[in-house]
Amino acid sequence: MPLTLLAEQALNGLQLGLMLFLLAAGLTLVFGIMDMINLAHGTLYMIGAYLAATVAEASGSFVAAIAAAVVGTAVIGMALELTVLRPLYRRSHLHQVLATFALILIANELVRIIWGAQPIALNMPAALSGPVELAPGLRYPAYRLVVIGVGLAAALLLYVVVVHTRVGMWLRAGASDREMASAMGVNTAWLFTAAFGAGAALCAVAGALLGPLLAVQVGMGENILILAFVVIVIGGIGSVRGALVGALLVGILDTVGRTALPALFRALASPEVASEAGPALASMLIYVLMAGVLCFRPRGLFPARG
Amino acid sequence: MASTLHIGLRPLPTLVLVASLVLLPVVLTAVDQPFYIVLASRVLIYALIASSLNLLIGYGGMVSLGHACFVGAGAYTTAVLVHAGIGSAWLAWPAAALAGAVLAAMIGAVSLRTRGVYFIMITLAFAQMAYYVVVSLRALGGDDGLVLPRRTGYGFGLDPHADMTFYYAVLGVVVLLMAGLRRLLNAPLGRALQAIRDNDVRMEAIGFPVFRIQLAGFVIAGATAGLGGGLLADLNQQVSPSLLHWTQSGTLMVMVILGGAGRFLGGVLGAAVLLLAQELFSDVTTHTALGIGLVLLAVVLFAPAGLAGLWRQVAR
């Protein structure tokens, strides 16, 4: 495989990985701190993308669209936390799965009623639509570079907040021992709502940024939700560092696998085998990775709880 | 009551239930609504599949989010056998159960090393792998799936394409398996399974082979779901990858919890209520999922023990 293609795929993988991290970070914190399985996390991502598309259409400004999506989704997320999710914290995982599955059904149907069943358009800013020459012979879309940049910035911000601030300390304390954190004077009710709002805001960032690259449509949340769950299970539930490592692993493995595996099969076997088995194995790759990790490290790579 | 552990069905209500299921197609034909016989067959099949998941979730404490892959294994096995010219239900349905059992043995052997949320996720991962295998294999029809040119036959001059005959075949299988399931739950293996659900460490400590017992439960549930898949393939005369999609596993889980996990008829009740509600809502509005979602949310928030539990809540 030519080196430039490999470099391009690695960048695409990095971009997918960073976007997955934005989703997985919120998911893993909610999961780790509140011990809550939130299947509706992907729904917040969908809502973010739809809000961004609507505001971009009305205002013509992509930056305004992202800002509106972040604020709007955070508010919706916190409202959901206060009304529906709060009574579920002390329930079994089974009930949480069921209730948030119900939320997915409701949200998908509401989006279908408001915006219609057809995918809607969210265009990238015209200034960023061209390619940039990174190295001789390696031209890469400027917009994707911006996505990578924003993803890196968000990851860095999250790292600083979680590791170097008081709020971050509360979050980590909550993730490792909720009751003890509460006994030591952390206002967990407030913390939960804030964490949920922040997670929703990160979802909206990912939704708005990925909107121009993928389709903005009903059901977009479920596909990426599964990937985000794979990420946090690989990384270890409740660990933000684990989420980052898991997200990059999944993003790069998935993207590079989709190009490399068919090429590998073409080299080793016939083209027919390559066109049939290649894509299938590439889709399975991340699940194989997850099963393998769980086989040897049943609590993920970076377990948050001792 | 013999024992608090005994899972009983009072004879009279059970007899009434089975008798009304036997009479249902006759009544439906009499009132000229034969369409509902097909719907009833579908409800029965899903009742069986949901009950097999109830064995895992409700009685075994194994919350699997990959149950649809066993259904898919059974359905595709039946479809492939029909295409290969083997058209007897006597062969195809046991083969479907066997396919479910083999797949469950492989997945269970790895998954049962993990606990809790990790178990949920690893079963999901395996089901996703199965989904992608089916989507990509051209021999299985890829995205489009396979069409069964005809249903599997029963011999004795019976026509499986007559809706009523098919309904009775399904009813026979389902009643037989539900009786077997009840027998299993009251047998030592079933008791041990429930004890492991409540405290696996203690069971391990007093010498029970926890892993093997759980694996046995997992395989039995997989076989039952596989058989259900075989019946579904016959019912629809068509199989497609959507049978294995993770939302199918989610829907099956919804049926179990809606009806009441760990209650013997929980899966049956959940399947019946969910499928009938879908049918009902789809007559009124195209936004079926909205109604289903709101009902589900209400059930979780206000009737945590499921509909079977709500009955008791109200009766008390």
From TrEMBL, chain A:
Belongs to the binding-protein-dependent transport system permease family. LivHM subfamily. Its main location: membrane. The keyword Membrane applies. It is found in: Cell membrane. One of its GO terms (biological process) is amino acid transport. This is Branched-chain amino acid ABC transporter permease. Pfam families: BPD_transp_2. The keyword Transmembrane helix applies. InterPro entries: ABC_transp_permease (IPR001851), BCAA_transport_permease (IPR052157). It comes from the Bacteria. GO terms for molecular function: transmembrane transporter activity. The chain crosses the membrane at residues 12-32, 39-56, 62-85, 97-122, 142-163, 184-208, 214-237, 244-265, 277-296. One of its GO terms (cellular component) is plasma membrane. It is a multi-pass membrane protein. Keywords: Amino-acid transport, Cell membrane, Membrane, Transmembrane, Transmembrane helix, Transport. Signal peptide: none annotated.
UniProtKB/TrEMBL annotation, chain B:
It is found in: Cell membrane. Coiled coil: none annotated. Keywords: Cell membrane, Membrane, Transmembrane, Transmembrane helix. It is a multi-pass membrane protein. The keyword Cell wall biogenesis/degradation does not apply. One of its GO terms (molecular function) is branched-chain amino acid transmembrane transporter activity. Pfam families: BPD_transp_2 (PF02653). The chain crosses the membrane at residues 12-31, 37-57, 64-84, 90-110, 117-140, 166-185, 206-232, 252-277, 289-311. This is Branched-chain amino acid ABC transporter permease. It comes from Vineibacter terrae.
